[in-house]
Amino acid sequence: QVQVVESGGGTVQAGGSLRLSCAASGASLRIFSMYTMGWFRQAPGKEREFVAAARWNGGITYYTDSVKGRFTISRDNAKKMVYLEMNSLKPEDAAVYYCAASTKAGTPRERFDYENWGQGIQVTVSS
Predict the structure, then answer these.
(1) DSSP letter at 87?
(2) Residues ≥6 apart with Cβ < 8 Å to 30
C-alpha cells in the first residue's frame, strides 16, 4: 500500500506561485504508476474538495473548474513523485492541501475514491 507525504507549502501573496510536492513510498515503481494521484484541499469550516488528479502516466489530467488555467498537476513515476504547480494564487485557494492515491478506474474525483492520504500541508495566501 502506498504512503504519501506532502511538502512545499507555505505563505505566498495573492498573485504569487507555489509548488507542492508529494513523495510516495511503500510501492514499487510499477505499482505506483498504476495509481491515479490526486490533490484535495480543505479550508477551515469547509468540506475537503477535489483539486486535480493525474492518471497513471500523467497523460490524462483533470481539474476542478476554479483552478483550471492556474494549477498544473504532474507526476514523475520514475521518482514516485507528484507535483502541483499553483500560479495566480487567490485568497480563496488558502487551505490544507492533501495528496491522495486511488486505484479506482476512470477519473476519480470524490474523497471516498481515494484510499491513501497524506497528512496535509498548509497553504496560506495573503491579500
Answers:
(1) -
(2) none
List, in order, residues 6 or more apart from 80 with CB less than 8 Å away: 23, 24, 25, 27, 29, 32
**Measured between alpha carbons, how far is 18 from 11 in angstroms, rounded to an integer?**
9
Three-state DSSP string of 8-40:
CCEEEECCCCEEEEEEEECCCHHHHHHCEEEEE
- pLDDT tens digit sequence for 53-104: 999 877 899 999 999 999 999 999 999 999 999 999 999 999 999 999 999 9
Paired residues of 3 in beta bridges: 25
The tally of CA atoms less than 13 A away on the side-chain side of residue 3 is 4
Q: How confident is the model at residue 36 (pLDDT cuts 50, 70, 90)?
A: very high
Contact 61, 3 (CB under 8 A): no
Cell triple for 59: 497523460
